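Problem: given the chain below (214 residues), write out its structure.
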Amino acid sequence: MSKNALKSSTSLVGIVCKDGVVVGADRRSTADGRLVLNKTKTKIRHVTPNIIAAYTGVVADIELLHKVLSAELKLRELSTHTKPTVGEAANLMAMLTYRGVRAMSPIPSIVGSLIAGVNPDGSTELYTIEPFGAVLKVEDYDANFSSGMPFILGILEKDYNKNMNVQQGAELARACLRAAMERDTGSGNGIDVFAITKDGIKHVISEQLTAQVK
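Solution.
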């Protein structure tokens, strides 16, 4: 891959709580992890009204995969008259990711993602899809292969508790992202955290971070 490819180096975090799921991300997009190109990039997006995805990887690939995933899920809903489950969305995303990597191309698609949402029965789930297409249901927490992953996992290993609620999970996600942004040059500028419960999806933390003048 060209070293000049536009990439979203990114910090992602997903946390399974006793009453739902929390997903968070930073807002910085970079070229080669060094040049900041966008300070307000939203990396968590709805693929259906009840399912969201958080992405890390090459921006062009992310945009295409998101559009295809959203369209395919909408077509499925129209043809079956049922809402897709989180697992169905995750497995479809995994297939699209795998197909993009295996396609004959000098520049293969590179996207990692976290997918979370509310199932038709009211249950919540979190899945991680790694950049080569493997899909795994998350039972506790994950940071996918985002560049902030080493710092995020360190915080989660220390502070995660399976009995925490989504409010506590959201604050833990904030702490994880702040820690990553302190050390990872590909992450920064803002924080978005979404809470997913049986009542739906809410954008519970939205922060724009500015440089401190000393």
